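Hello again, I could really use a second opinion on something today. For a while now I've been wondering how a particular protein folds. Please have a think about how the structure follows from the sequence. Here's the protein in full, and shout if anything looks odd to you:

***
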Amino acid sequence: MCVHDENYSESILEMAVQHFPVVTIDRRLKGVPISFVGTDNEAASRELARYLLDRGYRKTCFVKPHAAETSTLQERIQGFKKAYNEYGLFADESLWITDIRATLPAYHQYRGEQQLAEDEEKIIEFIQKHPEIDSYFAVEYSLARIVYTCLRKLGLQEKCPVVCFDGSDNIVQESMFTHVKQNEKEIGSLSVRILADEIRGDDEVKTVLVPYHIREMTRGGRQTESDRMLKIGKSVFTNRFKKHTLKEISDRKLKPVGLEWNIQRRMRQNGYKQQNADCR
């Protein structure tokens, strides 16, 4: 699988050459004929950045790990910049924190708490150096937690909001940060279905973008006055040569052996809209 700072995995490329059934999740391999299921990261990042811009925040610190080549991160950067451009502004990259290592697998595994302490020290120093920063946009939930910890140590946690991708599920539905909530269950289900189709001989390369939500921060398990679920994702199902509608997908009769599927019901429950998808 591809990890942070990797565009391609040699093992996946080898399987693609051998026409082995493969479906990637979350990270797409551009230029490689492999099916993909995930979130429209650029659109989601744009909407999350606009959430801050709509509320008057203009000096947002974009926070990402020390990983330059991951496709998912590149898409989130592009979406962030696009939101600023739509407001007639330019994202000030001098206010960005782009070298956090504690969440990267290699550093987390071998350096653990030491790396985390170093990153926190670095972030605190950066915050103190840039008092003009009024908000923080983290590309991952774990990064948001690290930033929040640093803000709390400086007594700035109430002054500077933190938004991020993903959150921590809990039984009382509390949400620590306003965040992009990806539909992980649907992503997984559709990935398995596509993989099962490929195992039966379907060689169509597909791209599915599953709807996401912006979930606002809650306090004490209760939604704030403005808290709401904004359904802003679009689900598209495309390949290089054909156009599909979601109804066409749901009408397909083939079912994976040993699995029960009710795609139409799941689409209705998750608010899918039937539409033609543009080829990419």
Remarks:
- The mean pLDDT is 78.
